[in-house]
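User: Last request for today: this protein with flavin-adenine dinucleotide, please.
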Amino acid sequence: MSSCDVVIVGAGPTGLMAARTLRAAGRSVRVLEARDRVGGRTWTGHIDGQMYEIGGQWVSPDQTALLDLLAELGKETYPRYRDGDSVYIAPDGTRTVYRGEMFPVGEDTQAEMERLIGMLDEMAARIGAEAPWDAEDAAELDSISFHHWLRQQSSDELACANIGMFIAGGMLTKPATAFSALQAVLMAASAGSFSHLVDDHFILDRRVVGGMQSVSEQLAADLGDGVIELNSPVRSISWTDEGVVVTADGTTVEAGHAIVAVPPNLYSRITYDPPLPRTQQIFHQHQSMGLVIKVHATYPTPFWREEGLSGTGFGAGRLVQEVYDNTNHGEEQGTLVGFISDVNAEAMWALDEEERKRTILEAIAEFHGPRALDPIVFYLSDFGSEEWTRGAYATSYDLGGLHRWGRFQNDPVGPIHFASSDIASLGYQHVDGAVRIGRDTAEKILGESGR
Ligand code: FAD
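Assistant: Here's the final one, the structure of the complex with flavin-adenine dinucleotide:
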């Protein structure tokens, strides 16, 4: 058995940032990672020779913890291509090319969308991301689904569908009937405002040259040899007030503290001895992963640009509800990325491979025409079948869960701390939140144990 000051479960951006912070303060750490790679939900893959970011990739201007880390690591970023017109597909399938931020819908619907965006901005500013469960109306907002809350505010169905899309399919990747209005407000507040979420120029601003996983790879390299054990899924944590004994396949580590830096849906894959307290045992069952397929299709050239299109397209209620130009830095070939969420994703996985590919490409061709039907490389991200994630992008509470249990989610149990972007406040569900909570959890341990 080896020993160290802090043992970290999971070498995603959260765990690696915690390790970096602890090491900088002179503490010894070990990081135990289940997969054969670091980076977790950030992952650069090469499919038929084409580089794809299979997991998290975009950085927005409010994500200052991540931007500071990128600067510290000397990593360069580049803007997403977005010159030209966007495409909107209405629920009836009508395609409209438009310019500017507002969807080309009737004036009344536009006004209604602006009113709803204003309401959500006001709520996000008032309630905030730090402790949404403390808001005066937290219980009320957590007892109604976002879908029904929108329809309480407006009788304009199209406005409700368009606004719902930005959080439901776009972020939490669950149907808007499956999470509360309070959870939607947290999502908006964690990104600075609801307006930020509807502004693709803001929220999908830049990418990292070499891919987002390279951030984790560099953090891992900086830790040096012998700190991270790959292929070491943690199976059990025995704990007392004095410390932990963490057992992974092939390794046992004794430490003063543990940081469980895995998404909440995976907490219960670890056996705790003694068991976690009742509150944790209950609420850990109420945080579940969404489901989204990230579709990549690469073409000899970014042909849409020749037609004056940016590659950006939106279609609430369509199979592919968002599509963007995702051409890699410095490449001649053009890549589109699209997203298929929740029930639509389930329907796609139920098809055989050939029919799935054809159906998805036809949906992308609705935005960018028949040339989209013939990519040279095509790939679907499938985090739902990854044992050490089990969904995408992240976890959220079921109806009513956030106001009941959110206040406990960051509490340590004895020497065991929990951390992941899923329980971050600012940067919730994003790499920025992982960087923040990894650093903050390490700081908490340093504070407890005296610097
Ligand atoms: P993870 O990245 O999930 O890392 C957890 C690690 O723990 C993993 O390496 C896992 O293998 C390991 N692990 C789990 N269980 C065990 C165990 N028992 N023992 C040992 N190890 C274990 N964010 C953005 O900012 N921008 C985006 O554009 C964006 N797009 C995304 C697209 C997709 C398809 C997905 C899936 C995510 C996206 N995200 C995006 C979210 C972002 O990737 C996550 O917020 C971030 O990776 C979370 O980091 P983490 O370290 O908290 O968790």
